[in-house]
Design goal:
Elements (H helix, E strand, L loop, with lengths): L3 E6 L5 H9 L5 E7 L3 H11 L2 E3 L2 H6 L4 E4 L6 H10 L3 E5 L6 H14 L3 E4 L6 H9 L5 E7 L11 H17 L5 E7 L8 E7 L5 E7 L6 E7 L4 E5 L4 E7 L18 E4 L8 H15 L7 H29 L1
Parallel strand pairs: 1-2, 1-4, 2-3, 4-5, 5-6, 7-10
Antiparallel strand pairs: 7-11, 8-9, 9-10, 11-12, 12-13, 13-14
Helix pairs in contact: 1-2, 4-5, 5-9, 7-9
Length: 330
């Protein structure tokens, strides 16, 4: 099979790593080039990765690429993604899929009509800890998520829900296999015109609750998910790629494990074996395989759209509460 001809559109903080990984994939790909409106940066990344540099992404598309990664600001996802899909080019589009659900639906229709792969960069699906968690197939009763970090002006064109929380919404939806029946949210802008910190409460039909918090105004980074089931407590650290499963021995119905001070001695901690690799590299390799074979990507546009739909419900509820709060405060 001849190598897949690939390119990258947008080589900022994230796109530069797409370029680095494509350049190192070997004979399965031919790295054609990168496109970035910053000519000096484009030349620098092209020199480091051994490819051509373009300032207009249309010129990159004309150079014969068969597949591209798009890592431009969210407000440009639709127009750039549309140009690629209309040409029949397989597309890995960084999250979120688009700025609106209408734009997302248009991209999905184009991918379907032109029979090309549309994958979305929910990179946490390729995190070794998350893969281990999903392999456990837990049945959650309660889910708690914290994704916290410092402010970055490069992502300020969207709120923290589409910027950060969407990663965890994707994981929660994967765990539950169905959308929530009820959504409530609170949040507020701090440094940008959009919400910079938000907490959402998701209620599912089986009674499971998920509290999901995202902040981009926190000095320290934290990315953790905790899952409580009928007989276990699972904690996952995205950053450390670590999973711990805790269970109590002999804690069945009628057991007297609550009596006395030795219950901690009956706490069993299991750490599933993990193969830690760079999640972005695994994501790109998955995309290349899907593009080369025409297979279904691990994180399809349709799945990304489901996460976007929940994000929209969250931002709608959050916005309504902000309006009521500001009205009362005035």
């Amino acid at each position: 099979m001849p190598p897949l001809k690939v390119g990258v559109i947008g080589v900022g903080q994230l796109g530069q790593h797409h370029a680095r990984i494509y350049a190192g994939l070997g004979p399965e790909v031919e790295f054609i080039g990168i496109a970035d409106t910053d000519e000096a940066r484009g030349r620098d990344i092209a020199r480091k990765t051994g490819c051509r540099a373009f300032t207009d992404y249309h010129d990159l598309l004309e150079a014969g690429v068969q597949a591209v990664s798009i890592a431009v600001p969210t407000r440009h996802h639709h127009i750039v993604g549309r140009a690629c899909l209309q040409r029949g080019i397989h597309t890995l589009l960084e999250k979120p899929l688009a700025a609106t659900l209408e734009q997302a639906d248009d991209l999905l229709a184009l991918a379907r009509d032109h029979r090309v792969v549309l994958q979305v960069g929910h990179v946490e699906r390729f995190n070794a800890a998350i893969r281990a968690l999903l392999a456990l197939k837990p049945v959650p009763l309660f889910i708690e998520v914290h994704r916290l970090g410092p402010f970055s002006p490069r992502t300020a064109d969207v709120g923290v829900v589409l910027d950060l929380m969407i990663h965890d919404l994707d994981i929660v939806l994967f765990l539950k296999g169905a959308p929530p029946v009820r959504v409530e949210a609170v949040g507020t802008p701090v440094f940008s015109a959009h919400e910079d910190i938000a907490t959402a409460r998701l209620e599912f039909a089986d009674g499971c609750l998920a509290n999901v918090t995202a902040s981009r105004v926190t000095r320290e980074k934290m990315r953790k998910i905790r899952i409580y089931t009928r007989d276990s407590y699972i904690t996952v650290d995205y950053l450390k790629q670590d999973v711990a499963v805790m269970r109590l021995r002999d804690a069945g119905p009628g057991a007297d494990w609550l009596e006395g001070d030795d219950w901690m001695d009956r706490l069993e901690v299991e750490r599933p074996p993990l193969i830690r690799e760079e999640p972005l590299k695994l994501e790109i390799q998955s995309f290349v395989r899907a593009a080369a074979t025409g297979g279904e990507p691990e994180v399809s546009g349709a799945k990304a759209r489901e996460a976007m739909a929940i994000a929209k419900r969250i931002t709608d509820d959050l916005g309504a509460r902000l309006v009521r709060y500001r009205g009362t405060a005035s």
